[in-house]
Amino acid sequence: MEGYYMKYKKLITALLIGGLVLGQGYWTPVLATMPSEEVQETTEVSTEASTEVVETEEVSTEASTEGLVEYTDFIGSVANSDGTGYTINDFVARLYLIVLGRNYDYDGYSYWVTQIKNGEKDMAEVALGFFYSEEFLKKNLDNEAYVTILYATYLNRKPDTDGYWYWVKQLEDGASRRYVLDGFSNSGEFQRLCAQYATVVEGDGTT
Predict the structure, then answer these.
(1) Which label site among 59, 169, 194, 202 has the fewest CB atoms less than 10 Å from its CB?
(2) How does pLDDT run across 134-154, given as a tens digit for each residue?
(3) How far apart are CA 146 and CA 87, in angstroms?
């Protein structure tokens, strides 16, 4: 510490005198005559400080990513809170809300409901159709938003922190979106969700 003080004695003295006695007018000539070594040291400290700011911003970004509620506002919104009365019609309606972010159009809704009722497609295949629709692909979502929607669609919940970052990292490391989607589609959690929506209703379910 003593060696550090002696090395920068001139600078420390200038700081004390300039700040406490002479004020701002003292600083211009003092800074202009500072040895290049002292200037370099000050620059390095400033750089370290800016790095800390960047790290803080990164942490903040991670926290805000978990809050992508825009794509999860409709979790469970078309199902009864007591877990009864789910239908395949509800399942299709929630795909429009969560994946496409809008209410269904009658023609599209009726088509997908009929596909499931007639056994032409199962719920996983219908959900896949939404994710590969032109309307969804045009959203051009980043990996974080994409994974968030997968949680809402296939698991009917917001992401857990560990699982969320695991899947995001999979995508960042080169895994395809289809690979990650299949991980959700083949999960036991999604199979249980499908069982809840297995009830078939008469008609098109729009009235």
Answers:
(1) 202
(2) 999 999 999 999 999 999 999
(3) 26
* Of the candidates 75, 129, 128, the residue with the CA atom closest to the CA atom of residue 98: 75
Neighbours of 101 (CB within 10 A): 15
Q: Rounded distance, CA 99 to CA 73, Å?
A: 11
Which residues, including other chains, have CB under 8 Å from residue 93's CB and lie 6 or more apart? 78, 103, 104, 109
Q: Record the pTM.
A: 0.61
As a whole number of angstroms, the distance between CA 150 and CA 124 comes to 12
How many residues make up the chain in this entry? 207
Q: Where are the alpha helices (DSSP H) in 96-142?
A: 106-117, 123-131, 134-137
- For 29-60, write each residue's pLDDT tens digit: 444 444 444 434 433 433 333 333 333 233 22
